[in-house]
Write a structure and sequence with these properties.
Number of domains: 2
Number of helices: 14
CATH class of the largest domain: Alpha Beta
Radius of gyration: 21 Å
CATH superfamily of the largest domain: Metal-dependent hydrolases
Largest sheet: 9 strands, mixed
Shape: globular
Bound molecules: zinc ion
Length: 452
């Protein structure tokens, strides 16, 4: 048969090992993986010249679009940045507009399919007592993960958490949780305000690690009581790692993500970057950062994400004078893979299989993206060609965000893809965009924690 595309002379990196060979692609799917590419007949051929082929990365927590805040980011810029960084699927997270009914979901899908360079899935939320009745219908329409908060401004009551955990069992869905204890936060933020300080560091001090500990321990107790499925967003502390490890040992359906900024920075870095490193949860001490890296190595933490949530420069700059007024969020989707490739793989902290597990395989498994997450016949041909010896310094003006600033400015990073393929479509070749927007599709999620 005549294939659409073949990639020859490649080191094919999969979850189960690295093989030399060729990949054949037909109708957007991986059709064949063979040792000698000569046996494949295809309309188009790409010679990988001995470089790595990785499965496309998946960023499970990206605030790419909110109709009220398109000056911060939008589908066109956010997914263009993603694809240049090797992220072929983003999971859209609500920012402020709640994705809590089918009408707003349809709006997201329509805009997303018109404007995107990557595929995308969508998280619903924020679930509270007034919209929990819409969850079942959203699940029928392909939304299987629902964001909830244990704290303001989108806080759900404890009882809504219990009811949602029951629903996760019934509907094979997942709750994803921003876990900081509201009582501790209310107290600690009030104390921080009373000091009169407005410098960038006070933001990080105002939300203590114990707020995360209290919230996660309670959530895991609920999970143990009800059962069900839970994913913890952007964990930042050794307490969280320990609690999740214990939960997994007990057999709970729990998974967790960590953000690149929490892996690379401590709150001391906020002195240099000021409001550009304001985010929630905040930055922690070196000790917590080390616990997060250990959690990645031993499989307690399942995925690395970016919580991509840029603001405009104006929304950040006001924070030099008064940190309380600055937007809290950081850009990151374009540097996800390069950061993990450099600080994980190149530094021998994580293997290439670990990188694939953290950025592709586990995200697909947890969020029910059945045809994503690895390189094997039958899966979507979402493929990256990466020269492992090529490095480039991060410069904000080279990035593709709507607001091109980055706290990773100046880092020398490996892992930039020179070819990016989305369901068989070559989007980037020779590190240049060769396709137009609009090829990205909404991916309906299958059951949470499903196996590939
Ligand atoms: Zn977020």
């Amino acid at each position: 048969m005549l294939l659409d595309l073949k990639i020859v002379n490649a080191k094919i990196a999969t979850i189960s090992g690295i093989y030399e060979g060729a990949i054949g692609v037909s109708k957007g799917k991986i059709k064949a993986i063979v040792k000698n590419g000569d046996v494949l007949k295809a309309e188009k051929q790409i010679d990988a010249k001995g470089k790595l082929i990785l499965p496309g990365a998946i960023d499970v927590h990206a605030h790419i679009y909110d109709p009220k805040f398109v000056h911060r980011e939008d589908f066109e810029h956010g997914t263009l940045a993603a694809i240049f960084g090797g992220v072929t699927t983003v999971i859209i997270m609500p920012l402020d507009t709640h994705i809590d009914n089918v009408n707003i979901l349809k709006h997201y899908i329509e805009v997303g399919e018109r404007e995107s360079y990557t595929d995308f899935s969508i998280q619903g939320g924020f679930v509270k007592s007034d919209n929990i009745s819409n969850v079942e219908e959203l699940a029928k329409n392909g939304v299987k993960a629902f964001k909830m908060f244990t704290c303001k401004p989108y806080m759900a009551s404890d009882y809504v958490f219990i009811r949602m955990l029951e629903l996760t069992r019934k509907l094979d869905i997942l709750i994803t949780v921003h876990a900081e204890d509201e009582a501790i936060l209310e107290h600690s933020i009030r104390k921080a305000l009373e000091t009169g300080r407005k410098d960038p560091i006070i933001h990080h001090i105002s939300r203590p690690p114990l707020a995360e500990k209290a919230a996660i321990e309670k959530l895991l107790t609920y999970l143990e009581y009800i059962s069900g499925n839970m994913h913890l967003c952007h964990i930042t502390t050794s307490y969280a790692v320990k609690a999740i490890e214990e939960g997994k040992r007990k057999g709970l359906n729990i998974s967790a993500e960590v953000c690149t900024h929490h892996l690379l920075f401590t709150y001391n870095d906020a002195e240099k970057w000021g409001p550009y490193l304001k985010m929630n949860p905040p930055l922690r001490s070196r000790e917590h950062v080390e616990a997060l890296w250990k959690g990645l190595q031993n499989g307690v933490i399942d995925t690395v994400t970016t919580d991509h949530a840029p603001g405009s420069r104006d929304e950040k700059e006001v924070g030099w004078e008064d940190i309380w007024r600055a937007w809290g969020g950081v850009a990151g989707v374009e540097t996800l893979l390069p950061i993990m490739f450099t600080y994980g793989f190149k530094r021998n902290i994580l293997s290439l299989e670990d990188i694939i597990r953290l950025l592709s395989f586990n995200p697909a498994k947890i969020f029910g993206l059945q045809f994503k997450g690895d390189i094997k016949p039958g899966l979507d041909a979402d493929l990256l060609i990466v020269d492992p010896g090529f490095a480039k310094k991060v410069k904000a003006e080279d990035l593709h965000y709507k607001n091109p600033w980055t706290p990773y400015e100046g880092l020398n990073l490996y892992g930039w893809p020179e070819v990016v393929i989305l369901r068989g479509n070559v989007i980037i070749e020779n590190s240049e965009l060769i396709e137009v927007k609009g090829l990205g599709r909404f991916i309906k999620a299958a059951n949470a924690f499903s196996r590939i």
